[in-house]
Amino acid sequence: MDDRELIARVRAGDPAAERALYDAHVDRVYRLSYRMAGDDDLARDFTQETFIRAFEKLDTFRGEAAFSTWLHSIATSVALNGLRKVKRFRKREADLEEADGVPGGAPRAEPDLKRRLAQAIDGLPEGYRTVFLLHDVEGYTHEEIGAALDIETGTSKAQLSRARAKLRDALADFAGEWIR
Amino acid sequence: MNDRRDEELQRLARDYHRPPETPRDEMWTRIQAERARRRDAVKVVRLAPWLRWSAAAAAVLVIGVAIGRLTAGHPGTTPGTTPARDADVAYRVAAAPYLTRTEALLTSFRAQSRTGRVDADYAVQAQDLLVTTRLMLNSPAARDPRLASLLQDLEVMLVQIAQLRAEGDTRGDVELINHGLEQRSVMLRLRAASPAPGINARGAL
Predict the structure, then answer these.
(1) Is A96 found in the same domain as A14?
(2) Is B43 on the interface with A (CB under 8 A)?
(3) CB-CB contact of B31 with A51 (8 Å)
(4) Distance between CA atoms of B158 and B152, rounded to whole angstroms?
(5) Is A90 in the same domain as A152?
(6) Is B134 in CB contact (< 8 Å) with chain A?
(7) Based on the structure, what is the number of domains in chain A?
(8) B188·A37 Cβ contact <8 A
(9) pLDDT (0 to 100) of residue A135
(10) B198: nearest CA in chain A?
C-alpha cells in the first residue's frame, strides 16, 4: 500500500494505517534527527514531535509534494528549532562559567581525523551543516533538501559546496593522511 | 583533487553522529500517549486577530504588574482593569518564555546527566525558575487544567534539581529526575505547551 492510500485511510480514522505510515517513515526521520542532534534523547523527542505534528496536520497535506518531503520539512523544522533552544541554553551556561572563571570544556588532546571532522561539522554555520548532513551523510537530493528547508535547489548546492570547502580546510593538517 | 577529497569526506562523515537502531515501538507508544493526552486536553484558545493584539498588550501589563508585585511587595495589586478572561489569556502568553526556558534547562540537564556530571548551575537555574513556576500556579493561567498539571509536574522536577548537591554522588537523584521526566512525558508536554516558531505555532493563540 503506498503513502497516498495510507493517508486516505488515516484520514478515515484507521489506526492501523497510522502505524503503517509511521513504520514506513520513522527510520529516516529518526536517522535525520539523530544526525542533527547527536543525542538519543533529543533524537527521540524530535522524532516523536515530528509525527505528532504530522498526524495533527495531516488534513493540511494536499499531496502536491511527496509525503516524505512534507514530513521531512516538519522534521528539520522541529530539529532546528529544538537545537537552537539547546544551543542558547548551553551558551548561557558557558557564559556563566566564563564569568566565574571556570575553564570550560575538556582538556585539548591532539584530535584524530574523525574527531577533527566532527568538530568541524559541529562548527559549520547552521545552513551549511544541515545541507551537508542531509546530502553527504543521509543521501538526500538537492531537490529534497530544497523542499525540506524551503530553499532553492541552487542555494542547497552552493551551501554544500561551501560546507565541503570549510571541512577540507579544517582537515588541511591531515593532507595526505586522509586521501587514499 | 577536490572530487577525491569530497568522496573521502563523505566516507568519513558517515561516522558522524551514527544513529543506533530506531526505537520504533518505544517512540510509537509515547506518540500515542501524547496524542491521547492532547486530544483530552482543553482546546487551545483561538483568538481573533484583533484580540491577539489585546492579549499581547494585556501580557505586557500583567508582566509589569507581576514584576511590580515582586519588587515593590504590594501583594494586593492585581490587574483589576483587565477583564478576567483576557487576563487568563494574557497569563498564557506571558507563560511562553518561561516554558521555553524551562524546556531548555530540562533538555540540557537530561543531556548532561548522561555524562555522569551535573553542573551546580542547574540547581541555581532551577531555583530561579521555581519562583516563576509558583507565580504561574497562583495565576489565572492555572485555570487551564492542562497547563496546571504541567506546572505541577515541572515544580516537582525543578525542586528536585534545585536540591541537587554541588558535591558528592548525585547519580541516584539524577536518575530519579530523569525517570520522572520520562514517566510523565514532561518534555513532550512542555513542547506542546510552548510551540516553537514555525509550523505548529500557527493558530496556537
Answers:
(1) yes
(2) no
(3) yes
(4) 10
(5) no
(6) no
(7) 2
(8) no
(9) 96
(10) A77
Measured between CA atoms, the residue of chain A closest to residue B113 is A41
User: Does A31 contact B at CB distance below 8 Å?
Assistant: yes
pLDDT at residue number B172 = 79
Same-domain status, A78 and A141:
no
- Contact in structure between A149 and A76 (CB atoms under 8 Å): yes
Q: Please identify, among A105, A137, A167, the residue that sits at the C-terminal boundary of a domain.
A: A105
pTM of the predicted structure, to 2 decimals: 0.59
Asked if B107 lies within 8 A of A78 by C-beta distance, the reply is no
Please state, in angstroms and rounded to a whole number, the distance separating the CA atoms of residues A179 and A163.
18
| Residues A81, B197 contacting (CB under 8 angstroms) | yes
Same domain, yes or no: A54 and A122: no
| CB within 8 Å: B27 and A82 | no
Residues of chain B falling short of pLDDT 50: 42-45, 47-48, 50, 54, 57, 61, 67-68, 71-81, 198-205
Nearest to B107 among A42, A164, A167 (CB): A42
Distance from the Cα of residue A129 to its chain's centroid: 9
pLDDT over 90 (residue A74): yes
Do both A96 and A33 map to the same domain? yes
Q: Is A37 left (phi over 0), alpha (psi -120 to 50) or beta?
A: alpha
Q: Which domain holds residue A12?
A: 1-105
Candidates A74, A89, A166: best to mutate against B (most CBs of B within 10 A) is A89
Which residues have CB under 8 Å from A145's CB, separation 6+?
A131, A134, A135, A151, A153, A156
ipTM: 0.83
- Residue A178 is nearest to which of B12, B23, B28, comparing CB atoms? B12
The answer to whether residues A132 and A72 belong to one domain is: no
Question: Distance (Å, rounded) from C-alpha A10 to C-alpha A20?
Answer: 10
Q: Where are the domains of chain B?
A: 46-201
